[in-house]
Design goal:
185 residues, alpha+beta, 6 helices, 50% helix, 14% strand, PD-(D/E)XK nuclease family transposase
Length: 185
Amino acid sequence: MLNRAVFYVSRLISSQKERDFENTNYNDIKRVYSIWICMGMDENSMNHIHLTNDNLVGSYVWKGKIDLINIIMIGLSKQLPKRDEQYKLHRLLGALLSKELTADEKLNIIGNEYDIPVEEDFRKDVGVMCNLSQGIKEDGIAIGEARIIISMYNNGFTAEQIAAATDKDIKDIEIIIRGKELATV
């Protein structure tokens, strides 16, 4: 993940050439930040990864900006942390991005613990976000099931056998098989 973040900020820096600065005006480079939120980690963590200057020989001060590249890596543990000043950000993000909490549970934490006004528009947005993640999950399951059905069909199973093995309706199996056949035409 870190290599990906380094690649991304490097591209952000290099994309500034001829857009934010021209020719060799490297002093016009703008600082970039890339914030990564990684869920399901073993522990909560937060790191600021940036350039540093280690004097190995001598103490010459090189001219230029050392603060151009900034990567923030936020690791959210599998469990929502308890209320604690150190993990305040982790608790807020963990609650907001949780797949296990309901929209009302999320809003309760956000409103009561962080004094963020939970107005009707915000309530709707959180509800949409919760439904969006559920939709993504359901789409993933449907794609996986379709691949299994196609694989069974390609291996000689009849639609009836596939329906019996997967507890799916025969009509649904036939639609998936027809979709596969149409895709190969």
